[in-house]
């Protein structure tokens, strides 16, 4: 190795001393001269030496980690799916089309990055780098090429594990403990942005535990301002010791210096299951959930961001067996407070099927404990992200016809069908749309258009209506929304 490793403390000290040098230079000689009773001022290191120490620290990381960073290229047309719009909105049309491979180039090739984490040939990368690939090729820094096999992938975290067969041990990256990260620590990214192999960029950890980024079901990202670009996906984020702290995954196309990495501790857990089982087994409650907004909070006797609202309970699922029901607000899991949907998702997913867990819910304003035996998550987990309304009504409903009720597996006397929603109006702002079936108003069932109209008319101006609805479609689910009538004009 060409450079010796410099500890983070030395780098920080270098900056502190450099920043102090100009002030010392401006101090008048008389002020700088120590008094007879004071100790002599320490000799300050040369500024150039301090810069050299900082330079050596970063170069040492590059020397140590780069051999384990690989270029991952694939052949095989990408298949458009429901995630396309989500990725397009997040990354922007140009970056999405040109670099992320969801619309294939003429030769059907895409590329990204990866990092070798085991001398046996196991490589961590992103699911979106290899998704739907027919052939996967890995190229090392010494130009050796290997045909890689897919060990397993996990779209819910956007992780994948590849394996290559080599005649000798491969260079590997050392993994750090991402639970010990602190905001402000150095972060060094290595990858292949825009096909520029082994590009090294430096920044800091801007934040940890970032959720709602919009690229995976389970998000707990490290945010960094180390430059990450299309092609960096799947490459490592490193600390100043050259150890992997994360797998680079996403950027905010409209921003600068906003990139996201999957914490390596999470990646290790997913990798272990993919290697052992070829898939990831997660715990499951059997509920559809949504966040408690300010509008919903008062209706359920809690405060905003205090718990997660159960919008629906799956028949025969663990939650139903334990007595949970729609309208409950989950506030604790095993004595740990729950504040929002991603929090509850991660906690439950991390539990083993068959494990018994103590859950506290708020029901009708009172806290109630329940013990749930966790199940195994099916391939798809229903999740609701409802938008709350602001003012007015602005919708038209009709009775639920026998034909529609039968297709939706509902009783004819169960709810009313939304047939029109005023564009930009209050109902639209509440998240309602044509085809929804409103089942309850103010926690009371509605059976026809007349009772629905009466229920809304009974709500005083300036107050809100809590609606419970069924949303049909491929991802059919129930959810709560709040409709605000608005103050009288």
Question: Which structural traits does this protein have?
Answer:
489 residues; alpha+beta; Thrombin, subunit H; Pdz3 Domain; 4 domains
What would a concise description of this structure say?
This protein is α+β, with helices and mostly antiparallel strands.
Walk me through this protein's architecture.
- Helix 1 (8-26) packs antiparallel against helix 3 (47-65) and helix 4 (84-91) crosses helix 5.
- The protein has four domains: 8-33 and 43-66, no CATH class; 67-280, Thrombin, subunit H (Beta Barrel); 283-376, PDZ domain (Pdz3 Domain), CATH 2.30.42; 395-484, Roll (Pdz3 Domain).
- It has 489 residues and is of the alpha+beta class.
- The strands form five sheets. Strands 5-4-1-2-3-7-6 form a seven-stranded antiparallel sheet. A six-stranded antiparallel barrel has the order 8-9-10-13-12-11. Strands 15, 16, 17, 18, 19 and 20 form a six-stranded antiparallel sheet that branches.
- The protein has helices at 8-26, 29-32, 47-65, 84-91, 93-99, 127-130, 264-277, 294-297, 318-321, 341-349, 402-407, 426-429, 449-457, and strands at residues 69-75, 109-118, 122-125, 135-139, 145-147, 149-154, 159-163, 186-191, 199-210, 221-224, 236-238, 244-251, 259-263, 283-284, 287-291, 308-313, 329-333, 336-337, 356-363, 366-373, 375-376, 395-399, 416-421, 437-441, 444-445, 464-471, 477-484.
- It starts with 7 loop residues before the first helix and ends in a 5-residue tail after the last strand.
- It is built from 13 helices and 27 strands.
């Amino acid at each position: 190795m060409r450079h010796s490793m410099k500890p983070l403390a030395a780098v920080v000290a270098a900056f502190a001393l450099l920043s102090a040098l100009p002030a010392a230079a401006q101090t008048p000689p008389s002020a700088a001269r120590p008094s007879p009773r004071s100790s002599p001022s320490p000799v300050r290191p040369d500024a150039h030496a301090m810069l050299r120490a900082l330079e050596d620290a970063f170069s040492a990381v590059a020397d140590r980690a780069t051999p384990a960073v690989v270029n991952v290229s694939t052949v095989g047309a990408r298949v458009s799916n429901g995630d396309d719009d989500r990725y397009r909105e997040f990354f922007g049309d140009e970056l999405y089309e040109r670099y992320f491979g969801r619309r294939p180039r003429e030769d059907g090739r895409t590329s990204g990055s990866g990092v070798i984490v085991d001398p046996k040939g196991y490589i961590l990368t992103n699911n979106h780098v290899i998704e739907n690939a027919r052939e996967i090729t890995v190229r090392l820094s010494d130009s050796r090429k290997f045909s890689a096999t897919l060990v397993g992938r996990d779209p819910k975290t956007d992780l994948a594990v590849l394996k290559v067969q080599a005649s000798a041990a491969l260079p590997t990256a050392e993994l750090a403990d991402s639970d010990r990260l602190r905001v402000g620590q150095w972060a060094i990214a290595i990858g292949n942005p825009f096909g520029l192999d082994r590009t090294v960029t430096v920044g800091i950890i801007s934040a940890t535990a970032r959720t709602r980024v919009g690229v995976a079901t389970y998000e707990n990202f490290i945010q960094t301002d180390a430059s990450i670009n299309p092609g960096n996906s799947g490459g490592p984020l490193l600390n100043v010791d050259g150890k992997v702290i994360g797998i680079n995954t996403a950027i905010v196309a409209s921003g600068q210096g906003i990139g996201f990495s999957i914490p390596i501790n999470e990646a290790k857990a997913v990798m272990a299951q993919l290697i052992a089982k070829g898939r990831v087994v997660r715990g499951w409650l059997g509920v559809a959930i949504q966040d408690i907004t300010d509008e919903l909070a008062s209706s359920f006797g809690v405060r905003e961001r205090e718990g997660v609202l159960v919008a629906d309970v799956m028949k025969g699922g663990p939650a139903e067996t334990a007595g949970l029901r729609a309208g409950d607000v989950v506030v604790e899991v095993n004595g740990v407070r729950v504040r929002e949907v991603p929090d509850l998702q991660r906690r439950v997913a991390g539990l083993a099927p068959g494990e018994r867990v103590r859950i506290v819910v708020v029901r009708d304003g009172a806290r109630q404990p329940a013990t749930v035996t966790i199940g195994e998550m099916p391939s798809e987990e229903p999740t609701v992200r409802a938008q709350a309304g602001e003012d007015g009504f602005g919708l038209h409903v009709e009775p639920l016809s026998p034909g529609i009720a039968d297709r939706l597996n509902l009783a004819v006397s169960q709810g009313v069908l939304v047939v029109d929603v005023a564009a930009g109006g209050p109902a639209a702002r509440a998240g309602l749309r044509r085809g929804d079936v409103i089942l309850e108003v103010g926690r009371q069932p509605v059976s026809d258009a007349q009772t629905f109209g009466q229920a809304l008319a009974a709500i005083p101006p300036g107050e809100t209506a809590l609606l419970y609805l069924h949303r049909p479609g491929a991802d059919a689910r129930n959810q709560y929304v709040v409709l605000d009538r608005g103050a009288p004009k």
